Amino acid sequence: MSQETVYAIASGKGGVGKTTTTVNLGTALAQADKRVAVVDVDLGMANLAGFVSLAPDSTTLHDVLTDDATIDEATYRLADNIVALPSGTGLDDYANASPEGLRGVVEKLRDTYDYVFLDVGAGISHETVLPLGLADGVLVVSTPEPAAIQDSQKTVKLTNRTGGTVEGLILTRTHPNSSLSYEEIATRLEVPLIGTIPEDPIARKSVYAGTPLVVYKPDGPAATAYRQIAADLAGIDVARTKIEDPEDDESDSSDGDGGGDGGWEASPDEVSSAITEAESDT
């Protein structure tokens, strides 16, 4: 894995665990004594604030982008070695903020921290496209579900068009005994498979608790997978732990950002059809 500094965590579809992935990768690296900043660049639909416990009048990235605050004033310590820059949740904040200021924010953070993770909003808009080109590498997050895979193909192509570099694919809500080849999904998307995050019933509980999964249940299957991906990103050797299926009686979970795709996986034919359709749309 190449040594990058700034990663954009992106997805074409909401509810696939993008914010969960951002926070857990950042926390895992912080636990490895790396200095990490996590930035919520989803200016319209902020998700990171729940991990920071902001008051309604707290300073956020929106204030930085309107020149009403400094980066330091909008930065909040999450734990040892890791800080967060959340975005505001008000419509007025969104209307007044200019995404163009993100370039200066990213450059200052790049000089201060070992790793910077940009939690990018889903969909296609100026504020979601801009971070793809600012990052050293883009990590695309998806579930093995046709609509998510189709949107991931669009995200890959959009990143290429902005001059960004797709570092690879992270698949969430996977199953170790699945007949679906996750490597094949990445191959069809023409990107490396960075790693897979297995379905884990504890993931939903950690989100509700406002605690990263790698802290909430560090030895769980999803937490173990996140730590391995973080180690690969940083070039750190860690003990690989066998990932088992979670208990069947807790299968009503989702991987993270609130939403849920029902927990089912696509068949190989559905994957092929989704990618082909996405290619025809771009």
Compact overview of the structure:
ATP binds at residues 13-20. With 282 residues, this protein is an alpha/beta fold. Helices cover 39% and strands 16% of the residues.
Describe the structure.
By secondary structure, the protein is α/β, with parallel strands linked by helices. The protein has one domain: P-loop containing nucleotide triphosphate hydrolases (Rossmann fold, 3-Layer(aba) Sandwich), CATH 3.40.50. The chain has helices at 18-31, 61-65, 91-96, 102-112, 126-134, 146-161, 182-189, 202-209, 213-216, 221-234, 268-281; strands at 6-10, 36-40, 76-79, 82-85, 115-119, 137-142, 166-174, 193-198. An eight-stranded mixed sheet has the order 3-4-2-5-1-6-7-8, sandwiched between helices. Helix 6 links the parallel strand 6 and strand 7 (166-174). Helix 1 (18-31) packs across helix 10 and helix 6 (146-161) runs parallel beside helix 11. The longest helix is centred in the middle third of the chain and has 16 residues, at 146-161. ATP binds at residues 13-20.
In DSSP terms, counting alpha (H) and pi (I) runs of 4 or more, how many helices? 11
- The arrangement of helices and strands along the chain is EHEHEEHHEHEHEHEHHHH
> Can you tell me the number of structural domains?
1
Architecture (CATH level 2) name: 3-Layer(aba) Sandwich
pLDDT average, as an integer?
81
Relative strand content: 15-25%
Structural class: alpha/beta
Question: Can you say what the CATH homologous superfamily is?
Answer: P-loop containing nucleotide triphosphate hydrolases
Distance linking N and C termini: 29 Å
Cα gyration radius (Å): 18 Å
Largest sheet: 8 strands, mixed
- The total of beta strands comes to 8
Described by the principal axes of the CA atoms, the overall outline is: globular
CATH class: Alpha Beta
Strand order of the largest sheet: 3-4-2-5-1-6-7-8
Q: Which fold name is given in CATH as the topology?
A: Rossmann fold
Helix content range of the residues, please? 25-40%
Low-confidence stretches: 239-256, 258-264
